[in-house]
Amino acid sequence: GWESDLVKSDPLVVDCVCALAADDPLANKPFVTPNDLDGRPCATLLPEHFVPRRLREIFSEAGARLNVQFEMQNAAAQYPLIAERYAFGVFSPLSAWIHKTTQQHPDAIRFIPMRPAVKYPFAILTPAHRPLSRLASAFVNALRGEVNDVLKEMNAEISTTPPT
Fold first, then answer.
1. How far apart are CA 26 and CA 59, in angstroms?
2. Backbone angles phi, psi at 49, to 5 degrees
3. Residue 143: what are its φ and ψ, rounded to 5°?
4. Mean pLDDT, consecutive 10-residue segments, the chain of 164 residues?
5. Which residues are 28's β-sheet partners?
6. Which of 32, 37, 82, 122 has the smallest count of CB within 10 Å of its CB?
7. Helical segments of the chain, H only
8. Which candidate, 58, 81, 53, 84, places its Cα nearest to that of 69?
């Protein structure tokens, strides 16, 4: 966690989403499980990151094989591999939103829920022993509002059924 005497933490935990090529048959399911993804090539973050650690855990519990083919420093590097059907990936909904809003062809990838959940914790950190200036407080509130809007937008998008 982010517990410290020096910082005040405003934590938020979100459920990751599975990224698949839009024409992948699994992309039409309401959610995917380790058994759906058993043995399929996976693109993920570096092994010590909590997302691949959690994936190893849930695949192992399901008796499914996590087939990591690509380990990368960031999400952006994984998306082209996913769009071209070389792999699936698992991302925070914030990363998915960045992809959707910055890519020329965001529809090449579909994001669907993952079961069991892969939790993605993050937090807004502020100094613990100093009150924020009015400007800093306004920024933190604006940031929190934007993050919540993005999460609502992604949840709406993820829960809508894909075109058949």
1. 17
2. -65, 150
3. -60, -45
4. 79 94 95 98 94 96 98 93 96 92 88 95 90 94 92 82 50
5. none
6. 122
7. 50-62, 79-83, 93-102, 134-159
8. 81
User: Residues 104-107: contacts with CB within 8 Å, 24+ apart?
Assistant: 107/22
Cβ 16 vs Cβ 51: under 8 Å = yes
Q: Compute the distance between CA of residue 32 and CA of residue 9 in angstroms, rounded to an integer.
A: 32
Task: Give just the sign of the alpha carbon dihedral 48, 54, 58, 59.
Answer: negative
Handedness of CA 28, 31, 37, 38 (dihedral sign): negative
Query: Model's pTM, two decimal places?
Result: 0.87
Instruction: Return the bridge partners of 45, or none.
Output: 72
**Strand duo 41-45 + 17-21: pairing:** unpaired
Compute φ and ψ for 144, nearest 5 degrees.
Answer: -60, -45
CA distance 118 to 95: 14
